[in-house]
Write a structure and sequence with these properties.
Jelly Rolls; 6-stranded antiparallel β-sheet; elongated
Length: 685
């Protein structure tokens, strides 16, 4: 669509050719636009979408297409969403052609069938059984709301271009040209029910719920004369994959094929000029065009939409007036034809004000901003591509929901400085955001500060401040946990961290999210591990492990622990240290008590040795043996600690570590190997 307006409309506007020279058709109509036709299209039927300024009837029955003083055959395809009207009409002659509307007293216009193109309409499908053409038509009539109407190239789709691709009904009505008379074979292949009619006669069908077959077994024959004929294709789709496929074999054709786009009588897309009022007054005017979309979240549940606002004003007007745009989300622009990225789908009141001194011409247009379902089978934009536009937004002027969504956008593309900028502004304002959204905004802002590492104390203050403001104990607990983590991991303030974790465990425990409570218990276990208090560490870690992270049975959990351990061993052996680290973290999370049993520590020390972090390896061993001196893994851990000491050239320390095996664990099976190694080390002195 946008290409047409760039190549056709702007050229016409720049030429200065104004339609005001053409006489007004009928004084009862107050508004009109001249239609701008594409060059050399060869079509006799045209579709056009035009802004109606919200001033046509709800059903478009006051819309007329006029050329040479006579009404042209036309059909209103849709009014909305937003202040747009979509019509199709047949052109007569080559003179000027106008669309008229806004005539309160005019009788309803005639919507006549336009015998061209292939028109698709889709509706929601409640799932009733469709075992015949009659039940298909009843389901279609009973479906309450249309998902849209669109001209399509032909009847061949693996998705719904107008809405979700499950639980929908579709109806294609097209007009094809039979180049010669004779017997035509038509076939359908579909998932699920489908019915194919030509000139109102049922030629073939495949009712019921079923998958596609990839062949033409559901086929029928019909005798047709040369000329234009109507094809109607009805389809019902439940769950699972989608397919609609109307194929044919004209007389003399070698094989069955999908009915090609070129078989249908062509419908070309036209554009429109600026709006004219019968009294000649100047009106602000523009056309909103969706030009891109990207996913905000990985599951594609939320989109961000790029819109282009094409001015529908002659250059002569813009030499006198300056444009001011207000996009309805708090953002503005002074460009002539701006691009804008909407972070939330929905309807917006977009305002264009033309300013010349104290003179202002204002237009408020309702603009529908939504993902184009036809893009689901085609590549969409990268969300990073919209950064240059979104980074200019002023969170202080944006509607609070929009400012929060800007924070989410910046977080998704790892622009943490922008998260901080937008978040600070949002939270400094009075707003009526739901507590859940404020909680999310605080978490996003504090996390961005934490990752940046330069504003840790401010992040901590923010979390603690909002902890006291939360009405929800669940949210308060999560903020306390986050503040404790900053104290524990970054500021190294164990007392403050412990105070925050204790609030989660004892103040908010009944209403805190179970995983928040589990994390606080694990953190407390870690604190007591560092304090060498094995009894307290075990108490908190045991309580943490009593809160399951999944629904595995006891047997399955045992298998899971073994899988994690074997995977870590293999990763360390192969040198995949990042995977080994991630699995160590996962093991500690799922089975926190294992951190003081010995095997987890043994693999952790092997990981440290592989990374040449020898001092850390010795510290891990000595810490665990103070916590749990009776661990069965003590001899092997002391052996690994001796490896660390020897690797740093400290052979006396290696000897002392090994001698602990002989004195503290005299029954160890490694005793003979330890004796031999001690002797070797002493001789090496």
């Amino acid at each position: 669509m946008r290409a047409i307006y760039v190549t056709v409309l702007l050229a016409a506007l720049a030429s200065g050719a104004l339609a005001a020279e053409s006489p007004w058709w009928d004084a009862k109509w107050q508004l009109r636009r001249e239609v701008v036709f594409p060059e050399n299209s060869g079509a006799s039927a045209f579709e056009v979408t035009f802004p109606n300024h919200g001033l046509s009837r709800a059903d478009g029955s006051d819309v007329r297409v006029v050329a040479g003083g006579a009404e042209l055959p036309m059909r209103v395809l849709s009014v909305g969403p937003g202040d747009l009207v979509h019509v199709v009409f047949e052109r007569a002659g080559t003179g000027p052609c106008f669309i008229y509307w806004n005539s309160p007293g005019a009788p309803p216009g005639k919507n006549v069938p336009i015998r061209a193109g292939c028109l698709l309409e889709a509706k929601s499908y409640p799932g009733s059984e469709i075992d015949s053409l009659a039940t298909m038509r009843r389901a279609w009539a009973a479906s309450p709301e249309s998902q849209g109407v669109r001209f399509v190239p032909n009847i061949f789709y693996g998705y719904n271009p107008l809405g979700p691709s499950e639980n929908f009904l579709s109806r294609f009505v097209g007009y094809f040209r039979a180049e010669r008379g004779g017997q035509y074979v038509f076939a359908t292949d579909s998932d699920d029910a489908s019915f194919l009619l030509v000139d109102g006669s049922l030629v073939t069908q495949w009712p019921g719920a079923h998958g596609a077959r990839g062949d033409a077994r559901h086929a029928g024959k019909i005798e047709l004369g040369a000329g234009v004929h109507q094809i109607e294709y009805l389809h019902a789709q439940g769950g699972g994959p989608t397919l609609v496929n109307a194929a044919w074999k004209p007389p003399g054709a070698p094989r069955m094929e999908v009915i090609p786009p070129g078989a249908f009588v062509s419908v070309a897309r036209a554009a429109v000029r600026n709006v004219e009022r019968r009294d000649g007054a100047l009106l602000a005017d523009f056309l909103p065009v969706g030009t891109g979309q990207a996913v905000l979240t990985p599951d594609a549940a939320e989109h961000i939409i790029k819109m282009h606002f094409e001015r529908l004003l002659p250059d002569a007007v813009l030499k006198e007036y300056s444009p001011r745009w207000f996009f309805g989300d708090g953002c503005t622009s002074t460009d002539v034809s701006p691009d804008h990225v909407y972070l939330i789908e929905g309807d917006y009141d977009v305002v264009l004000v033309l300013v010349k001194g104290y003179d202002e011409k204002k237009l408020v247009m309702k603009v529908h901003v939504a993902a184009d379902w036809d893009r689901q089978a085609k590549p969409i934009d990268l969300r990073e591509d919209y950064y240059d536009i979104v980074k200019t937004y002023d969170a202080g002027k944006m509607e609070p929901r929009q400012a929060y969504r800007a924070m989410v956008y910046f977080e998704r593309i790892a622009k943490r400085e922008d998260v901080v900028r937008a978040g600070r502004t949002l939270l400094s304002r009075e707003n009526t955001l739901p507590e859940e959204t404020i909680f999310d905004a605080v978490k996003l802002l504090a996390e961005a500060m934490r990752v940046q590492g330069t504003e840790l104390r401010e992040a901590r203050r923010l979390l603690l401040s909002y902890e006291t403001r939360m009405k929800s104990a669940e949210y308060a607990a999560a903020l306390a946990l986050a503040a404790g983590d900053i104290d524990m991991w970054h500021l190294k303030d164990l007392e403050s961290a412990e105070a925050s974790y204790r609030r989660v465990i004892f103040t908010y425990a009944e209403k805190a999210d179970r995983m928040t409570l589990r994390k606080a218990l694990v953190r407390m276990g870690d604190i007591y591990r560092w304090r060498q208090d094995g009894e307290k560490a075990r108490e908190f870690l045991h309580r943490a492990e009593s809160i399951p992270v999944d629904d595995r049975s006891a047997v399955q959990r045992s298998v899971r622990a073994g899988f994690l351990a074997r995977s870590i061993e293999e990763f360390i052996r192969e040198g995949d240290m990042q995977f080994a680290y991630e699995f160590l973290v996962q093991w500690a999370w799922e089975f926190p008590e294992d951190q003081i049993e010995g095997y987890w520590t043994e693999l952790r020390v092997k990981w440290l040795i592989k990374n040449k972090e020898y001092a850390g390896g010795i510290a891990e061993v000595e810490s665990l043996l103070k916590l749990n001196p009776k661990t069965l893994y003590a001899p092997s851990l002391l052996w690994l600690a001796a490896d660390c000491a020897e690797a740093t050239g400290d052979k006396p320390r290696a000897v002392r570590l090994l001698e602990r095996v002989l004195t503290d664990y005299p029954e160890a099976k490694e005793k003979s190997a330890v004796l031999q190694r001690v002797e070797t080390l002493k001789k090496a002195k």
